[in-house]
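Lab notebook: predicted structure, single chain.

Context: the supervisor wants predicted structures on file for every construct in the current expression panel, including those that have not yet been purified. This is the next one on the list. No modifications to the sequence; it matches the entry in the shared construct table.
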Amino acid sequence: MSYNRLLQKQINKYLTPDLLENPLLKEFIKSINHSYVAFERDKDLMDHAFEQSESEYYKINASLKQEFELKKQSIFKDHRGSFTPIKLSDKWVQSNISINDDIFD
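Prediction complete. Output recorded below exactly as produced.
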């Protein structure tokens, strides 16, 4: 019978040929092999699910970045001239007060 690669290495390292003839031990090893195979199958499924989620995340992130850039361009296009730089302690800061604003209107 072929076993999981890691299990086969462990069998070769720790068990003697005469021990492998024991029917109870054979059943035990089959059970262990089944566990190894199930674990690897579950791991492959989780890896696949992770890859799918990661791919979707990158697509959504790219879409959000594009949407953000479009909104940012729209805001600056619609409010051109509304932002005036002001100087506060050696740093230029963007103000949302327009030069043409009349505070008494």
